[in-house]
Amino acid sequence: MLVEIFADFVCPWCWIGRHRFLHALNQRPGMQIEIAWRPYRLNPALPPEGMDRTLYVTSKFGDAPRVEAMYALMTRVGTELGLDFAWERIERAPNTLLAHRLVRLAERAGLADAMVERLFAAYFRDGVDLGNAEALARLASEVGVEAGEAARFLASDEDRAAVLAADGAARRHVDGVPYYVFDRRFALAGAQDSEAFVPVFDAVRAA
Predict the structure, then answer these.
(1) CATH for 50
(2) How many CB atoms within 10 Å of residue 102?
(3) Bridge partners, 98 (sequence order)
(4) Whole-angstrom Cα distance, residue 111 to residue 104?
(5) Model pTM?
(6) Helix, strand, or coil (residue 49)
(7) 12 and 124 Cβ atoms separated by less than 8 Å
(8) Pseudo-torsion of CA 109, 136, 16, 95, nearest 10°?
(9) Residue 177: per-residue pLDDT
(10) Three-state secondary-structure class, residue 166
(11) 8: left (phi > 0), else alpha (psi -120 to 50), else beta?
């Protein structure tokens, strides 16, 4: 079963959704799954260097009490899944084009899923700027992609057009992320509870 997952690495519900999806997979042991990560940038208009995180969040979501309430909710949900959100460490709201390109590089070595998880944790737990090529190369080396290769790749324009094209195509049929497409037949939107995935798995296998 092919599962295409549209996500962005600065989307907390995408990280939560990934782990709910993994919990659902545990309820169907032995099922053969191929996961393909698809780019969807939440903030494509951000400059390459990104912007101050606090300024970005308040301009998008409003005053501090509202933002703190959102953080508290996501922290509580994340804790239930074993995810550690460290909001105070995040200083930049990055443009994630480089990060999505890096996943394509990792995919060639069969490391896309590991790269995706490291990107999520790096941003939300460690406060890493995902728009910084040097930082991304270090993260790549942690999952098995040679740091020098990653640095050279990110310094080039390789796969840039492909990621931009895929991102643009996604916007024509995906309203938000996370978004899951199963064998190009069924779709599920949002950070659904684990129980929501199981009947979809069964429907795809039956079809």
Answers:
(1) 3.40.30.10
(2) 30
(3) none
(4) 9
(5) 0.97
(6) coil
(7) yes
(8) -120
(9) 98
(10) helix
(11) beta
| Exposure class string for 10-46: b at 16+ Cβ within 10 A, else e | bbbbbbbbbbbbeebbeeeeeeeeebebbbbbbbeeb
For 37-94, the pLDDT digits (tens) are 999 999 999 999 999 999 999 998 888 899 999 999 999 999 999 999 999 999 999 9
**Cα 91 to Cα 81: distance, rounded to the nearest angstrom:** 24
The answer to whether 19 and 197 have CB atoms below 8 angstroms apart is no
Q: How many domains does the chain have?
A: 1
How far, in Å, CA of 156 to CA of 78, rounded? 36
Residue 111: which residues within 8 A CB-CB, separation 6 or more?
Answer: 143, 144, 145
Report how far residue 187's alpha carbon sits from residue 34's, in angstroms, rounded to the nearest whole number. Answer: 15
Identify the domain containing residue 74 by its residue range: 2-206
The H or E element spanning position 164 is: helix 160-170
Q: How far apart are CA 195 and CA 57, in angstroms?
A: 31
Cα-Cα-Cα-Cα dihedral of 153, 155, 158, 160, to 10°?
120
DSSP of 79-133: HHTT----GGG--EE---HHHHHHHHHHHHTT-HHHHHHHHHHHHHTT---TT-H
DSSP annotation of 186: E
Give the pLDDT score at 142. 98
